[in-house]
Structure to design on (725 residues):
């Protein structure tokens, strides 16, 4: 894992001091809430329905056991003993008091963490594959370049007041687990014919009220040029992105309006100039310095064949279910990737109690090189676990109510906080997610249905990524009554697509039955082992519409 | 409004002239529109000339004419509109403009740090701003990750310097 040097630490410490001053000005009344707003929004502090909300950055989703223990402490000390993992690999606290936030930040800084640029119209936390460093077929560990980007984007003097927020995601495998095509910039790490590592660059993807899949504007940018290229994209956006309408200010609108080819031309013209200056050329030594922090841990020489685990799978049904869905293949023999579901039946997707955070930190320390990942699907991941330890890990997780065996299944839903917390929401999302997870809690049923992503947002801002769920649910307000609009066929991976609206919205009372109808229709018409999205792509929306609106 | 230039409050010698106004004596700032219409008269005139660019008027439009101007004023219509950060940076870094680059309009004290970094040397500020507040803002951070128009060494170059010193030390030892 990356460790701060004196420069990184000093900057974060100075940020705490600066924010302490700003909070003092607010508390003394020198700053009105209006004047304070842009300042708190530079530091992840939102004013929600009931209280301030604080968003803590987990850069590219990686954190250590020590950091996780600190998050547990903080959520006990300054909040109600739990936190909420978000789709951007961040952690949100829902109830901190403003006066406490400077102290809270100081505690975060003591474990090399911060809330810098987790909100506001700036470059946000760069996200990546939660299986980084462990995934099969990885070109290189994507966190190396993520850390380079983190530093370049932190307090960027030119790009701290962009037209709108700006999100960058990085993937290093063909299988895209970082949803790079629905980010403002998506970076795919590739090798060229000479075997050199470089970057394919996608631009203008995004969700919100105008969902668009990004466009590729470069096939290969050399490593030393990446920052110059990113700077060029950001400069074009900062100068020409719309500022007249909040809803048309994202880079996706600029790309959409001028076209991907014109965007590419403008970026290339800018890039030529920036590159010629040389100031942003990334030296090999700096890459090597950061790379050293992401070297693989000391893996033992082991075999993937572990008879005692196979025997336990045969004996313990629950363990077998967990192994089936929650374990991913690891690139080193004898190791596995353990995915921890934060979607237990009937609870809030992404929530994690302080005690559970401590447990995860302990388990990671004992079995996973003290390394923990937050996944954009609002789950947790232990990247490097010996296969022979899997049963021990499973039991420890189960004791902490963290062994729900549903990763990638229908109850592994993404959901935004919705109207229960958020002052933008039109409808509640959490209770609907809870009802769906109750309805489909039977594990055999879930396994029969297979891979199916349900994503849910309580409003058109799409924090729950409903557009790219295989089934998307959007909360809408119809004359003061909560309704739910359903989309089908979305995807966030390398086959990224925006879902199609299936028809008129459903009431709160109808929505879970509607999901049931969609699932049953799929089960009736699927061929062989086809998963939902493949069936949908084969048959389209019609069969689902017929069943859903049969009685209308 | 008062003027801070190079870290000091100073008297503003410049007069901003509206498009329909007659040209006064002394140092004047005109709009891009007026400059485009009355170039010859403005060049022939005695006294210093400055130009004021609105948000949306990027400096590439005057890049080949910068020698005529002792000052370029960049407008911030609202603090959220950060286009002028790019404009200032381009003026300094790409067009190597050495005259005054002045921030005018609506800015927050917490933005001074960023403004000085991208090459603004003059800022119009509200009456509540003291020199102490200004210094506090521009001193928010000791180090910076990015190279920028202020020429302050980036963290990366500081790291390289440290590494080089360490290597030299080892050699000597």
């Amino acid at each position: 894992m990356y460790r701060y040097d004196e420069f990184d630490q000093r900057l974060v410490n100075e940020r705490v001091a600066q924010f302490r001053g700003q909070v003092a000005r607010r508390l003394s009344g020198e700053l009105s809430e209006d004047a304070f707003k842009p300042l708190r929004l530079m530091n992840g502090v939102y004013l929600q329905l009931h209280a301030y909300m604080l968003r803590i950055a987990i850069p590219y989703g990686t954190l250590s056991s020590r950091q996780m223990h600190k998050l547990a402490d903080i959520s006990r000390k300054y909040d109600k003993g739990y936190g909420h993992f978000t789709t951007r690999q961040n952690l949100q606290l829902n109830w901190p008091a403003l006066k406490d936030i400077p102290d809270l930040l100081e505690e975060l800084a003591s474990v090399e963490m911060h809330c810098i640029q987790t909100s506001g119209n700036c470059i946000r936390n760069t996200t990546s594959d939660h299986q980084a460093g462990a995934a099969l077929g990885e070109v290189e560990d994507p966190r190396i370049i993520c850390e380079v980007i983190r530093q370049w984007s932190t307090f960027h003097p030119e790009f701290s007041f962009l037209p709108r927020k700006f999100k960058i995601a990085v993937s290093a495998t063909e299988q895209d687990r970082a949803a790079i095509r629905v980010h403002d910039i998506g970076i795919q790490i590739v090798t060229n014919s000479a075997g050199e590592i470089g970057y394919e660059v996608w631009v203008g993807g995004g969700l919100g009220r105008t969902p668009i899949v990004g466009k590729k504007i470069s096939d290969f940018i050399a490593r030393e040029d990446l920052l110059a290229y990113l700077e060029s994209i950001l400069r074009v956006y900062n100068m020409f992105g719309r500022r007249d309408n909040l809803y048309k200010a994202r880079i996706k609108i600029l790309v959409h309006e001028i076209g991907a080819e014109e965007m590419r031309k403008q970026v290339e013209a800018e890039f030529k100039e920036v590159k010629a200056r040389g100031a942003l050329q990334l030296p090999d030594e700096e890459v090597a310095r950061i790379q050293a922090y992401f070297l693989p841990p000391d893996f033992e020489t082991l075999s993937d064949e572990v008879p005692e685990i196979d025997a336990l799978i045969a004996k313990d049904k629950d363990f077998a279910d967990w192994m089936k869905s929650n374990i991913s293949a690891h690139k080193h023999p004898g190791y596995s990737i353990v995915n921890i579901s934060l979607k237990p039946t009937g609870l809030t997707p992404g929530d994690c109690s302080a005690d559970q955070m401590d447990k995860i930190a302990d388990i990671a320390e004992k079995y996973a090189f003290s390394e923990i990942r937050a996944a954009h699907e609002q789950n947790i991941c232990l990247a490097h676990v010996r296969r022979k330890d899997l049963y021990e890990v499973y039991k420890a997780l189960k004791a902490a109510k963290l062994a729900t065996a549903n990763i990638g299944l229908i109850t592994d839903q993404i959901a935004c906080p919705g109207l229960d917390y958020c002052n933008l929401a039109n409808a509640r999302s959490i209770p609907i997610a809870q009802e769906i997870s109750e309805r489909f809690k039977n594990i055999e049923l879930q396994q029969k249905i297979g891979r199916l992503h349900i994503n849910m947002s309580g409003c058109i801002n799409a924090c729950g990524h409903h557009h790219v769920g295989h089934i998307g649910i959007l909360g809408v307000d119809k004359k003061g009554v909560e309704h739910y609009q359903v989309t089908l066929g979305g995807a966030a991976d390398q086959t990224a697509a925006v879902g199609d609206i299936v028809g008129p919205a459903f009431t709160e009372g109808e929505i879970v039955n509607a999901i049931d109808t969609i699932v049953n229709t799929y089960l009736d018409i699927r061929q062989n082992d086809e998963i939902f999205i493949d069936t949908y792509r084969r048959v389209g929306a019609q069969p689902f519409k017929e069943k859903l609106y049969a009685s209308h | 409004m008062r003027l801070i230039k190079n870290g000091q409050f100073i008297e503003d010698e410049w007069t901003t002239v509206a498009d329909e106004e007659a040209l006064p004596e002394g140092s004047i700032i005109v709009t891009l529109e007026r400059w485009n219409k009355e170039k010859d008269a403005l060049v022939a005139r005695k006294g210093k000339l400055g130009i004021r660019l609105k948000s949306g008027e990027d400096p590439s439009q005057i890049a080949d004419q910068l020698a005529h101007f002792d000052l370029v004023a960049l407008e911030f219509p609202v603090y959220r509109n950060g286009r002028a950060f790019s404009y200032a940076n381009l003026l300094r870094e790409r067009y190597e403009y050495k005259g005054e680059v002045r921030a005018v309009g609506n800015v927050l004290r917490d933005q001074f740090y960023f403004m000085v970094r991208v090459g603004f040397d003059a800022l119009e500020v509200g009456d509540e701003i003291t020199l102490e507040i200004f210094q506090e803002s521009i001193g928010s951070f000791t180090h910076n990750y990015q190279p920028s128009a202020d020429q302050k060494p980036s963290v990366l170059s500081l790291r390289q310097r440290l590494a080089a010193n360490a290597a030299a030390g080892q050699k000597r030892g």
Summary: The mean pLDDT of chain B is 95. DSSP finds five helices and eight strands in chain B.
